[in-house]
Amino acid sequence: MALTKSAQKRVRQSAKANERNKHYKTAAKTAIKKVLTAETKAQAEPLMKDAISIIDKVTAKKVFHKNKASNQKSRITKHVNSLS
User: Fold this and answer.
1) Around 44, how many Cα atoms within 13 Å sit in the side-chain half-sphere?
2) Domain-by-domain residue ranges, the chain?
3) How many CB atoms lie within 10 A of CB 7?
4) 19-76 per-position pLDDT tens digit
5) Which of 5, 41, 42, 72 could tie 83 with a disulfide, CB 3.0–4.6 Å?
């Protein structure tokens, strides 16, 4: 364990940030999964809108890299467009 007070504080801060980032990452993954498991285009389109919004929020908080966000948005859009 860290000995200095500043190192101990840094450990506490990073633990808190890890919990927060895990929450955002899980929310994004769940939203993406919902879109990809949708049966019809009518079901998938509102889910896609929500997922893209969540992906953008997670990217703004620096949890996802902008390229990863772009890839995920492209992936779900491609999937929704392939549905009939």
Assistant:
1) 19
2) 24-82
3) 11
4) 999 999 999 999 999 999 999 999 999 999 999 999 999 999 999 999 999 999 999 9
5) 41
- How far, in Å, CA of 76 to CA of 44, rounded? 9
- Residue partners of 53: CB distance under 8 A and separation at least 6: none
**Spatial contact of 53 and 47, defined as CB atoms under 8 Å apart:** no
CA-closest candidate to residue 27, choices 65, 57, 60:
57
pLDDT of residue 84: 80
- Radius of gyration (C-alpha) of the chain in whole angstroms: 17
Q: 42 exposed, middle or buried (CB, 10 Å; 0-12, 13-18, 19+)? A: exposed
Give the relative orientation of helices 5-36 and 41-60 as an angle to the nearest 10 degrees: 160
